[in-house]
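User: Peptidase M14, Metabacillus lacus:
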Amino acid sequence: MFKNKSLRLLGSAAMAAALMVPATVEAAGAKPVPAGSTVLSVEGFINHAELGKKLQSIQQSSQGRVKVEVAGTSNRGRAIWKATVGTGKKVILVQSEIHGNEKTGTVALVNILQKLGSNSAEAKKLREEITLVAVPMMNPDASELDRRGNDYTWQEVLKNYPQLQGAQPSWNYYTRVLQGDDYAAKPGFDVNRDFHPDLNYVAKKEDFPGSSNQPGWYITPESKVVRDIYKGLKASHGNVDVFVDLHHQGFPYVEGTDKVVTMSLSGQFVPDPRTPAGAKYSKYAGNYQYDFSRQLNLAAYNALQAKGNSIFTHISLYEQGLDLPGTALGSFALNGSGTVLFEVKGQTQNYGQKMKGQLVKTVETGLEAIIEGYADDSVYKLNPLDYEKIPKSVYTPFGI
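Assistant: Predicted structure for Peptidase M14:
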């Protein structure tokens, strides 16, 4: 399906956040942006209504090979769709727009669904090996507001979880104007800090406000939808073998160069539970698949390096040594998934249509390499230690 017969791990170049409470913290994970950087319209990206129409069109044109379902709804009642293609035993779950101003991955996922649902012999072969579940735009309220956080007040949390009365708002709750986004008028949460490795966890007052190196709580509707998709796949297939999360990252440089990173990759979000540093996660040690995660990341890295064009070869390793069990990636890694983080440069409003196209192709190329490499088992031929050789990302202060 993804054409390059000489390199099985290469992808195709053709696939291209109301009531107020006191402010709590800085934006958890907010990405550095250069002073004076251009802010452009995001109208060229897919909005929520357009995504619904596009997914239905793909389902029809694929003659049902791509199955589209409403997996749940956001806090403001918008549909969160999942699209499933393939009947294979190897399960890959991919999500985009957990942060609503990180939109490139949604376009890439739509393109990949179109190709996987086609009638080509290559698509048919891949469908026999894998089951791909895509959750494009998993945080639609944030997407419509073009911001990082969802649209959900602490008062709404207390209404939905009365056992939390008297608790302090969670540390990832935004309540003020931040990087141009008015959370004072519409507070919200960083949904990607609301996951917990205990997939059956129920929020408890004593676990608030929490911190970045502690698990989340599954209090946001959006995280619960993805958690339930994940649990459902584990129940039906035995495991979610691969989990990929599509993000944007601001403007780091490739370490030791003056080159702005096109995309960073990572397979590490909590300390290895098999080591002293990860001892607090020791009960998950038997699930942790770090070598497999590194191999998956290498598949994407190698495919992008092999393209030759410099815009695609400025690929780096995202910050390592993280302890973020409240992220989807951290929680799902502890549950046995090989994990991959994609962080393309900038935020969606920093680039025009030409750069959008290049970044979409970057995401597609990496995703295709992971899909193909896992489908034909060639990913297992990669040396996990080569992951450590990927150049690192470094941020240069921009006076912000």
